[in-house]
C-alpha cells in the first residue's frame, strides 16, 4: 500500500469511490500516515478543514495541478478559490480529452 501513497502528490486530481461523497472530485493537499491523504474541493471541504481519505477509496486521475502543487511545496497560502478554479479547469480538461475518461 505504501506504493500508492508515493504515487500521489499535492495537487493531484482524485475522485471518491466510497462513502457519502462518492463521485465527488478533490485535489490532494497533503499525504498522511500510511495509506491516507487529505483532500479538498474548495467548496464543501475547504482548505481549512480538509477531508482525510483512505487511498483505497479514491480513484487517482493522471492529472495534477502544477499551480497548487507548487504553492503547497513553497508553503504559500492556498485558498478555496484557488482550489475551485483549478478543479473547474481540470474537469473541463477531463471532459475534452477522451483518453483521460474512465
The CATH topology is SH3 type barrels
Structural shape: globular
Assigned CATH architecture: Roll
Mean pLDDT: 88
Unreliable stretches covering 5 or more consecutive residues: none
Tell me the Rg in angstroms: 13 Å
Taken in chain order, the helices and strands follow as HEEEEEHH
DSSP summary: helix tally: 3
- Number of domain modules: 1
Task: Look at the helices and sheets and give the structural class.
Answer: alpha+beta
- CATH class category name: Mainly Beta
Q: How many DSSP-defined strands?
A: 5
% residues in beta strands = 25-35%
Major sheet summary line:
5 strands, antiparallel
For the largest beta sheet, what order do the strands appear in spatially?
4-3-2-1-5
For the terminal residues, how far apart are their CA atoms?
22 Å
Keywords: Ribonucleoprotein, Ribosomal protein
InterPro entries: Ribosomal_eL14_KOW (IPR041985), Translation_prot_SH3-like_sf (IPR008991)
Organism: Desulforamulus reducens (strain ATCC BAA-1160 / DSM 100696 / MI-1) (Desulfotomaculum reducens)
Protein name: LSU ribosomal protein L14E
Amino acid at each position: 500500500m505504501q506504493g500508492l501513497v508515493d504515487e500521489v502528490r499535492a495537487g493531484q486530481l482524485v475522485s471518491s469511490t466510497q462513502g457519502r461523497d462518492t463521485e465527488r472530485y478533490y485535489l490532494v493537499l497533503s499525504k498522511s500516515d500510511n495509506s491516507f491523504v487529505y483532500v479538498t474541493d474548495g467548496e464543501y471541504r475547504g482548505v481549512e478543514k480538509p477531508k482525510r481519505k483512505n487511498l483505497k477509496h479514491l480513484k487517482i486521475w493522471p492529472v495534477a495541478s502544477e499551480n497548487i502543487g507548487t504553492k503547497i511545496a513553497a508553503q504559500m497560502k492556498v485558498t478555496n478559490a484557488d482550489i475551485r478554479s483549478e478543479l473547474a479547469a481540470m474537469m473541463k480538461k477531463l471532459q475534452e480529452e477522451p483518453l483521460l475518461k474512465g
